[in-house]
Amino acid sequence: MTGKPKYKLYFQTSIDREIDTNDCLYFRNGDLCLNLYMKNKSQQPLTKFLFKFNANFLGLNCAEFKPPTISPGSTVQYSAPLTYEGKISDQNFGQIQAALKTQLGVAFFYIPFSDWSLIFDKDEAIEDPKEFLSKWEDLEDHKLPISSPKGTDPSFVQKSLEGVGMRKMAYRQLDASTGHACMFLSSNILDEDVLVEVEFKSGNLIAHCRADKHAEVAIKIVDSALS
User: Which residues contact 2 (CB under 8 A, 6 or more apart)?
Assistant: First the structure.
């Protein structure tokens, strides 16, 4: 692990908490992990810990949370492997609430989540244009206008969506006089192909997404990446 602390928890008479960055979730050897920095500002060693996620859109669970004893005034970094339920919900989308208990009390806190590349797997994305087109024709279209895009230039859209784990398939100029064009991208969520079209029209962006189960989730991620 390198860089700044991912999440800080300070233990006093009661539990205080301070967000340092929003990258407390990361992959290690293919497993999603939680990374915490914990500092004991109380006058007694912390020896008892219990950590639990509330119901969350990723279906994350923490099966084992056993940090070492934290002496008064000391800081400990601790990483715990997480498990999935194997599905992603659009309920409470983007929100992850957790609870951490010590002998000093219980803290409830939100873990900010914005690294959508943890969900999209471009290494498993469709690369064959014929396969992409065949699946595109078979799946239902989910459509969402991007209400406040941060940019409408094709290079910005490509960079933004590749940054969250999508693979560009093609870009087609439909009408040069009006700037009407389409960009097609692919990715994968939990072994499910996700197909995306971003339509450029009259200075606006319209996202289309097709997938068996996770189209609504995917289109929300596209909206988040571009807005």
Answer: none
Tens-level pLDDT at each residue, the chain (227 residues): 233 333 444 444 444 444 333 457 777 777 788 888 888 888 889 889 999 998 888 888 998 899 999 998 888 888 888 887 777 887 778 888 888 888 888 888 887 777 788 788 899 999 999 999 999 999 999 999 998 999 999 999 999 999 999 999 999 999 988 889 999 999 999 889 999 999 999 889 999 999 998 999 899 999 999 99
Residue 46 DSSP one-character state: B
Q: Are 54 and 98 in contact (CB under 8 A)?
A: yes
First to last CA, the chain: 30
C-alpha–C-alpha distance, residues 6 and 112, integer Å: 11
Query: What is the spatial distance between Cα 11 and Cα 24, in angstroms, rounded to a whole number?
Result: 18
Which residue is it, tokens 């050897």? Answer: 29
CA distance 120 to 143: 19
pTM: 0.74
